[in-house]
Amino acid sequence: MHTYVNGDNIYAKKSAENLGELLMGDQIDNSPYRFQMNVNESIYLCTTTPLNEHEVKLLKQRTRDLYQVNMILDNLPVMRFAVQNGVKIQWTGFPVGYTPPGSNDDYIINHLKFTILVHEYEGSNAEIIGTGEEGLGVISESDKSKASGYQIVGFQVSPCSVKYDPEVMTSLHMYDNITSISCPSELDKYQVIKEQERISFTYEVEFVKSDIKWPSRWDAYLKMEGSKVHWFSIMNSLMVIFFLAGIVFVIFLRTVRRDLTRYEELDKEAQAQMNEELSGWKLVVGDVFREPNCSKLLCVMVGDGVQILGMGGVTIVFAALGFMSPASRGMLLTGMILLFLILGIAAGYVSVRLWSTIKGTTEGWRSISWSAACFFPGIAFIILTVLNFILWGSSSTGAIPISLYFELFFLWFCISVPLTMIGGFMGTRAEAIEYPVRTNQIPREIPARKYPSWLLVLGAGTLPFGTLFIELFFILSSIWLGRFYYVFGFLLVVLLLLIIVCAEVSVVLTYMHLCVEDWQWWWKAFFASGSVSLYVFLYSINYLVFDLQSLSGPVSATLYLGYSLLMAVAIMLATGTVGFLTSFYFVHYLFSSVKID
């Protein structure tokens, strides 16, 4: 929280980027723009040398690729307003240049009109509460007289292109005052980008008093646009949930309960005769808990899924309660990484306990814990390393520095791995889940089906995706278009609905497979809900093609697809875990009620 008096230089305090900022490639550098509190002025900055062919090509390419300039003043991102189809839209940052529709000429933005909103208050009547940017704090009675002055509560810009006479401008020195400039509306008065042109850069500053107070200064950035769309998404999800809940209700009350009640009412001789006439799910009673293929991989994936789901859920809850301030850049990603490290205990515990349940012994728990600690982080590390080599090859400033790699390795092997091993040890001490029925020595043959079962599994992912895709659009826009996403209340509701839909879909599909005597339900239950990740990845490709026209070149597209793949893998593990655990307890409950020897 900074307080200024008239004429104070508004300075930027250089601070070290946190872990989240470094991973996102955010680097903050001081600009040559100079502001003095409540001093309205028009300033000349500089004039370039005549542009050569390479510089013209680069500027035109950056303009057509819609490159943005992002600026921050007193921790507030610069905001501009644009009118599209009669609707006023707010954006953060401003473009490098402008290309008129149907024109081959490109024009550079070389004049900026800054509007800085300031709030004035008297120290004797003020009690200032911070917003978390530099920690919560209340100014005491003795400090109020010192704190009186002005605080910056808004930062806006109107960018434009102005053609100057280079002979006149070169006679000026940096930070010389010039006359106020009106942004032209005719193209012939814009500064065109072409060879031998000399471009002059200028800016204006206007301070405007505002009634906005310090704690409310972020409200303009966090205005919830399109709330009806979010409500539509939630209502759509509720309809899917009620539909699936009806199917589950029918399965439990009409089919399962009816069969079990009828079976329990028979005497022993009738039960023995009925055992010979059993059909459907009751026929696989001796095979339903047979060890699945690749059981170790299943245990590891379920453990990592619990870890990812816990990380996402706790992060969204904290953000919805307002603990993740948008003023603290990178805090969201930093918090997610720390939570992921801590929840390694849960990953190790769940993996080892599921392993001991399937195998009937805790032997090999160290291998399971180690695999759980390295599976998803290993995938993330491989993807990030490949993408980082691409960034290094293209000399991008967004590349992760080598020092950060060592930090990540330290966090991984010195915090996450030991915690996962501790969780695995706790899993060996937990009581293993006992199966309600015995497993036959010889596996039962699965009847042939008219169509492969994986088609049904892949199709099941469309229902969870239907609850997710609208919020997914807003999340992708916030990541790739620089928009603020702060409707975490809606996101929390959508997460809860997604968990319910995944659980219901998986239970329904597991029951359907058991009814056709298919006892290999373990992986099908996992991928019935986990297949939503396939549709998330396909939607990400659709978003790249139709909504990210500004993302040009193979390097940018590769980065986008790499991060989308990582997101899809995380979603697969989290949603697949929800479906598997729900189906496991459903099957356990179902067969614990059967008295078949």
UniProtKB/TrEMBL annotation:
Compartments where located: Endosome membrane; Golgi apparatus membrane
Membrane-crossing segments per the record: 231-253, 297-324, 330-350, 370-392, 404-426, 454-480, 486-509, 521-541, 561-587
InterPro entries linked: EMP70 (IPR004240)
Keywords tagged on the record: Endosome, Golgi apparatus, Membrane, Signal, Transmembrane, Transmembrane helix
Keyword Membrane assigned: yes
Keyword Cytoplasm: no
The protein, known as: Transmembrane 9 superfamily member
Any single GO BP term: protein localization to membrane
GO CC term (a single one): Golgi membrane
Domain of life according to the entry: Eukaryota
Pfam families per record: EMP70
Membrane association type: Multi-pass membrane protein
Chief place of localization: membrane
Similarity section: Belongs to the nonaspanin (TM9SF) (TC 9.A.2) family.
Species assigned in the record: Arachis hypogaea (Peanut)
